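Hi Prof. W.,

I finally got the ribose-phosphate diphosphokinase prediction working! I wasn't sure whether to trim anything, so I left the full sequence exactly as given:
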Amino acid sequence: RVTSIADRLNVEFALIHKERKKANEVDRMVLVGDVKDRVAILVDDMADTCGTICHAADKLVSAGATKVYAILTHGIFSGPAISRINNAPFEAVVVTNTIPQEEKMKHCPKIQFIDISMILAEAIRRTHNGESVSYLFSHVPL
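And this is what came out:
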């Protein structure tokens, strides 16, 4: 996935490989690639307590990244998440609005959201009418 996104954006990439001994507990995290003097963008499907993503942000800054952003599909932000984000070196944490974020945004100015209601509505319409949903991968309704 990372290679595909980087190719489409015509940028180089690095990745963080994480190993877990059990669910919700990262045992080891390894940065693969060079981020020195670069803006780093962490991409993930969801963030719950934000321990992993904040640890990754710290690792990127330690490796020389000049700025760190996070882009997440689902921002759950439970328990210590907001405190962790506020104390992490993120410029911004961008999430979709699959979960309401207004209350979390009051306590964390780094959180921003992208409204995906139109694309979800179009995906539902296409599914209902038996049309291609994969069409949306290259034709996003605004």
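The chain has a mean pLDDT of 93. Does that look reasonable to you?

Thanks,
D.
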